[in-house]
Amino acid sequence: MSRPDLNPAVSFLHVPTPDEWVAQVDTHIPELLIDHANCEKKAASTALSLMYKYVDRPGLLHTMSRLAREELRHFEQVLDVMVASGVTYRHLSSARYAQRLHGQVRSAEPHRLIDLLIVGAVVEARSCERFVRLIDVLPDNIADLYKQLVHSEARHFTDYLKLAEGIAAEFDEDITPRVALFLDLDAELVRAPDTEFRFHSGVPD
Fold first, then answer.
1. pTM above 0.70, yes or no
2. What is the 3-state secondary structure (H, E, C) of 32-47?
3. Is 21 in contact with 35 (CB distance < 8 Å)?
């Protein structure tokens, strides 16, 4: 596994996950795994949605097709760990994290697509960083899975960011301000008090 400070997805973020969130993990493993499974399903759904909407972009279609397959495989792997850990899959409310990020996506094209890809990069980067933080505090069977997922999440981060940069270049748009906006919001959300523990939540009250 790459050292956290050498992982491009981790170093991309403005702030690390607070220690206070990590300290709550051992008492919230069921919620962590269930929400993680939900996140993998949503990630696959997001990739498929982009494939359906932007059919005129072969590069995006190939990248999102591969990503969707990988996210569904990750979902299956999380399910296997849940069964082995005696965790029953149940309905769980979503974290505010992704909703707040998507709330800043512009509505007009091509800006909407560019922003969606940037959000994808930020979410994958945060997921990668949390895997790195979690490896040392989780039971071995869960930690072993997360060690495997670090590399995939880092690659997904790169895929999303490269697509955003490439499409923005077609329209002479510098994505730096948009990236900064979403990274600032990510930093705000992961450090803010949160009423529920979730994979992407802030610090539990």
1. yes
2. HHHHHHHHHHHHHHHH
3. no
